[in-house]
């Protein structure tokens, strides 16, 4: 049986990741695939509740502790994610370890230290980086409510994402229309679905 593809959407806040992730799941489903959405942080778990409390500014934690909780929130999902992929279900994942490293390093933690807790996780087969100027994303709905939604921090996060960028990332202009971006993502996702069908799951 062919395995599912792990498709990741990354980017700074308000670049349209959740909008596109949901649209991609719906489109793949319409095309006859089995596809599900998975969002990190997954705020529904015990660890996720702690992360939510921190992001909503109800609870303070030091930078190292919250970093490890974000990573633990990925580790607690790893078997479920792998099982979905093995059963042929595609995963459209809204943020993952690159966000984990970029946000914590932007706060001043050592970059190499930040990478360590995520070493060995399941790896994405396709990564989209939705990119746009911070000034423009700040104009979008809802910006400014959560802990990290500040211009200076987001600017550092963007620089760090560009530093973490891997050669196979698809950098997407997030200022294009929702439909234009959706078409690009769909095309690339379909190509990846074909190429990974008979490939082993990737960890790293
Ligand atoms: N974090 C996360 C860490 O520090 N470490 C970690 O390990 C992880 C996983 C919450 C915070 O946690 C940090 C990063 C974050 O600061 P979250 O729950 O993913 O992470 O954050 P959310 O608030 O859910 O999402 P974002 O702020 O990142 O927004 P999205 O999903 O990028 O954007 P979306 O789709 O909600 O769109 C935002 C607005 O823009 C409009 C939408 O309609 C919406 O109003 N929009 C567009 N407008 C014009 N043109 C387009 N192309 C548009 N696309 C969307
Ligand atoms: Na989102």
TrEMBL record:
Single annotated GO MF: ATP binding
Pathway: Pyrimidine metabolism; dTTP biosynthesis
UniProt GO BP: dTDP biosynthetic process; dTTP biosynthetic process; dUDP biosynthetic process
Membrane-traversing stretches: none
Enzyme class (EC, first level): transferase
Annotated Pfam families: Thymidylate_kin
Annotated ranges, domain Thymidylate kinase-like: 9-184
GO cellular component: cytosol; mitochondrion; nucleus
Gene3D superfamilies assigned: P-loop containing nucleotide triphosphate hydrolases
Entry similarity comment: Belongs to the thymidylate kinase family.
Protein name: Thymidylate kinase
Native source species: Tieghemiomyces parasiticus
Highest classification ranks of the organism: Eukaryota, Fungi, Fungi incertae sedis, Zoopagomycota, Kickxellomycotina
């Amino acid at each position: 049986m062919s395995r599912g593809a792990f498709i990741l959407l990354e980017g700074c806040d308000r670049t349209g990741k959740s909008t596109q992730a949901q649209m991609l799941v719906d489109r793949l489903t319409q095309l006859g695939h089995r596809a599900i959405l998975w969002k990190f942080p997954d705020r529904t778990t015990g660890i996720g509740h702690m992360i939510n409390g921190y992001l909503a500014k109800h609870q303070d934690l030091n930078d190292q502790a919250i970093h490890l909780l974000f990573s633990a929130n990925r580790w607690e999902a790893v078997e479920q994610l792998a099982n979905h992929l093995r059963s042929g279900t595609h995963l459209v994942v809204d943020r993952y370890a690159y966000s984990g490293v970029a946000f914590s390093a932007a706060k001043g933690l050592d970059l190499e230290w930040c990478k360590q807790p995520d070493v060995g996780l399941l790896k994405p087969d396709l990564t989209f980086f939705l990119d746009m100027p911070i000034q423009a994303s700040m104009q979008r709905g809802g910006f400014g409510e959560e802990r990290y939604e500040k211009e200076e921090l987001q600017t550092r996060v963007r620089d760090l994402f560009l530093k973490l960028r891997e050669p196979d990332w698809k950098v997407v202009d997030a200022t294009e229309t929702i439909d234009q971006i959706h078409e690009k993502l769909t095309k690339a996702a379909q190509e990846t679905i074909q190429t990974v069908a008979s490939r082993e799951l990737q960890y790293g």
